[in-house]
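Journal club side-thread
Mid-discussion, someone asked how the predicted structure for our own chain would compare to the paper's figures. Pasting it here so we can look after the session.
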Amino acid sequence: MANIKLNNILSPKDLVEFDLYTVKDSTMVDTKIDIKNLEASEDLINFILRNQTWRGYSYIHNGKRLIGYGLDKGLTSKGLLETEAFSYFIENLKAKERLFKKALPLSFISQTNYDALLSLFYHTGTIETIGTPSRKFKINQYILDEEWQYIASALILTNDNRVIRQSEAKIMMLADYGTNKSRAIIRSQGIQNIRTAYPNGFIDSSALQQAEYVYFKETNRFLPLMTQSRKRQVVSDSKLTT
């Protein structure tokens, strides 16, 4: 069976008709703001957080060992509480945002266009292209020309992390960030995930011990089936980090 060659150039017939959908906040979509006065919106921060989820123990994703909100900072810790993981996440986001602003070839841009492109940069490290080796769209000129429908359509059509890319298109064109999820809920889900995975759902003994520590610190309870010696060690570690 012959391989199908996908077109890497967008034509007008490829464009998604976003005007058929409801814009949630036209001011956010249409009002241009000096990028000096722009930063990631709270809606964008929540969008990234809830799609990343919080894990207080180390795990493997795409061949990399990560922890917290999908970062490598804190890997050698006893485990990352949600507040610690969030602090590292914000630190990382702001560092990437500074690089993003240097890469962005516009001086004025709307909040939703800024947020969508920042999310793309945060997840992929570039705003020059969208896609995979089999189908990659160059968007440099589209950004310069402020052809947002072309960029959003490229986000919709890509097979690279499709759910995230399509969500970024909705942010860009419709100010639709999806349903917010509070950090309290994200934290509760992370705690429940530890309990569900315990004791055999971790990549190694180090991750298991991080999960035991984090569960105790977050709930003031022990996971079931922990040995008395391990309980004493967790309590001791907890006092040392209080």
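Post-session note: Residues 1-5 have pLDDT under 50 and may be disordered.
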